[in-house]
Amino acid sequence: MRKFNFCAGPAALPEPVLRQAQEELLDWGGRGCSVMEVSHRSPEFTEVAETAEQDLRDLLQVPDNYKVLFLQGGATAQFSAVPWNLFGAGSQVADYIYTGQWAKKAIAEAQRYGRVNIVASSEDRNFTYAPGPDSWRQTGDAAYFHYTPNETIGGVEFDYVPEVSCPLVADMSSNILSQPVPVEKFGVIYAGAQKNIGPSGIAVVIVRDDLLDRAREDIPRSLSWNVAADAGSMDNTPATFAWYLSGLVFKWLKAQGGVGAMEALSARKSSMLYDFIDNSDFYSSPVEPGSRSRMNVPFVLADDRLDGAFLQQSEEAGLLNLKGHRSVGGMRASLYNAVPVEAVQALVDFMADFERRMG
Amino acid sequence: MRKFNFCAGPAALPEPVLRQAQEELLDWGGRGCSVMEVSHRSPEFTEVAETAEQDLRDLLQVPDNYKVLFLQGGATAQFSAVPWNLFGAGSQVADYIYTGQWAKKAIAEAQRYGRVNIVASSEDRNFTYAPGPDSWRQTGDAAYFHYTPNETIGGVEFDYVPEVSCPLVADMSSNILSQPVPVEKFGVIYAGAQKNIGPSGIAVVIVRDDLLDRAREDIPRSLSWNVAADAGSMDNTPATFAWYLSGLVFKWLKAQGGVGAMEALSARKSSMLYDFIDNSDFYSSPVEPGSRSRMNVPFVLADDRLDGAFLQQSEEAGLLNLKGHRSVGGMRASLYNAVPVEAVQALVDFMADFERRMG
Description:
Chains A, B: Pyridoxal 5'-phosphate binds at residues 75-76, 102, 152, 171, 194, 236-237. Two copies of one chain form a homodimer. Chain A is of the alpha/beta class.
């Protein structure tokens, strides 16, 4: 029996997607083999790949002057790819907003290949807010401006898109496809799949055409967006099963009503949980109200000696993976697209019951 | 119904492995979620990862002073990783044997970061043989010696391990786990999974400990074997489903009798096909007898105007993916571990029948 899964990633996938994958795992569309067992260059897989790309383009309304790439290595490989692809034609300084653990990793890698200007940081209040534009100190000649629209660990989300004068780069791993996005305002959007797209092992990169000729000459081939774009993301054998499964998720998203529907659903789910927490003296959210993530909801118990009991009893109640990240402790409920309203209702019900019994 | 699948890669997987993955795809071991939906750092996935590594160590008898890594990006990312990891401490020249398309790609990437000495080449006879050691011109101070034990496209395989005085590096993508290998003679063995290990999207790297401190200082984090080794291949979120499935293949291999049994099976399967071809005037093998691959058997028809009919009729007979690589034409039957003897028998029967009717 399937349980409610609040894992921060690799995260829950839509059940209908898993059911279809299961049904055709040994015999895909009557071909006598699995989708995992055909050449990535075969007509049948090419159709999978192209359909997935088109569906993603439809969902996010990606303009024609952007390439959509399906690459290996997750967002972490892109932490390297961003400076390698954008520091090769002029400026080797970049603006970064420092909002938590993921921004930190992106910054650390960029610093190895150029100069990083920290535009703003929320370290002063333990990464519990998204610093507003009035506090930013931008560089005049930045090659690009990088930010993390949603910090999975801290549970902090930007509720607006920064307005900047150089190419805007976003690690959208944990909130992509949860709302409409004005892609035309971005130079590069990248996202590891394992939160809102598909299984781990594949990453999506959406890059504006004019940024494909700015790579350092000595860029490793596997990091080059230009090489990947020229090869239709098949310069090497792609992660075919992960690509196929991502495509099924895109079809499912379309059937649900697309990213507009996901935006409404995310608002509903996260409000349910935040409202409950705010009305309680037993639970609290460490994140400032204007910056609270719709995707990842960290919360703490007034008495952390009850953490163990909370985790054990919630798991027994069929609510999986509520433990907070090891670097911050407490609890975290991740409410990605595949997590249904019923899961959040069950969580709130459990939390109320736990408070009644233990509070 | 499952058909016989001779795809060169992503290739056939063992049917019992796919059946187990299918059964537990939505509810893995009664946990109420898929193996794709749990954190890579959870105790349950850690066990999957560690068991897979130990089983691979057992199968190949990997000595304790070697790390076993499970990385993303396939062999192609390793074409970059090899020079980046080994050109940082002294010599920036490497010996490469040039035996075909895959060696060519490895060489091209290494040439971007150092000097490549072509030890020997089989280009003179269209890559139809493995050049013997008597023809080699090695460098005295090479950082490493690279070769491709099996060329998937040309169908050429080395039937011995080179004896060299510097670290031996092998792209074993297409014949790993098909025979016992003296790992202690190698510095680095790497292999994309999608032929003899698992689905595409994961690569295995087996590297001797003393080679982990030779990387260029500016190596991109995602290419560093040292970073991966320190993090247990989890510096970024690994391709968890591909890792899990690879682990199931290792268990299946052990149950079949390990790599010794695979060596016997490979000899039997490939001999059946080569003997049939050699006894025919209708079919022929372009590869010299001492260098013929047990994994990939290219063959041509005496009259290539029959190629289309051969491919159409073989597919109708339930024999999939026999078309040769686009760069060489003709046919190719890949006989990896998951391809059963019955498949080869069915292929030979079909070929005999086709010859009778069309010859």
